Amino acid sequence: MAFTNNFIYRSLLFLVIFTTCFFLSTSVFSATKHKGIIGEDGIEIEVSCVFCSPPTYPRNAIRLGREGYVVVVFDVDTDGSVLDPYVVESEPTGVFERAAIKAVRKWLYAPPTYNEVSVKVNEVRAKLSFNLQ
Predict the structure, then answer these.
(1) What is the pTM of this model?
(2) Which of 101, 102, 109, 121 could form a disulfide with 36, with the two C-beta atoms 3.0–4.6 Å apart?
(3) Residues 15-32: pLDDT tens digits?
(4) What is the rounded average pLDDT of the residues 58-66?
(5) Number of CB atoms found within 10 A of residue 98's CB
(6) Which pLDDT belongs to residue 19?
(7) Are 131 and 28 in contact (CB under 8 A)?
(8) What is the spatial distance between Cα 72 and Cα 123, in angstroms, rounded to a whole number?
(9) Torsion over CA: 87, 32, 109, 52 (sign)
(10) Contact 120, 38 (CB under 8 A)
(11) What are the residue ranges spanned by the domains of the chain?
């Protein structure tokens, strides 16, 4: 009986610590507006993210107390959806990339327009910071 109580206590303690770290950790990204390029002329426009959920902090990074950032480049389609995100920079390497890509794929932007015409925006850059607080 003592083993069972101890196991339950330790499991609940782990759950409380993990949940606290998860909710107190912040995954802050640079802004809800990002810049990208349209057309072959390379005209730069700003796109507004209407749904930019923060990435999930990787459990292993929480456990090890790791912080860092990831720079992701992607396109925004005419309907505001994110296309083809990929990582161009990360620190530390191999820790936060998967979480960043997974989050960015879910983002939704206001449908981009230029001169009142719906356009696809290329090379949009977003920096996602992973900080424990």
Answers:
(1) 0.75
(2) 121
(3) 444 444 444 333 344 448
(4) 96
(5) 14
(6) 45
(7) yes
(8) 9
(9) positive
(10) yes
(11) 27-131
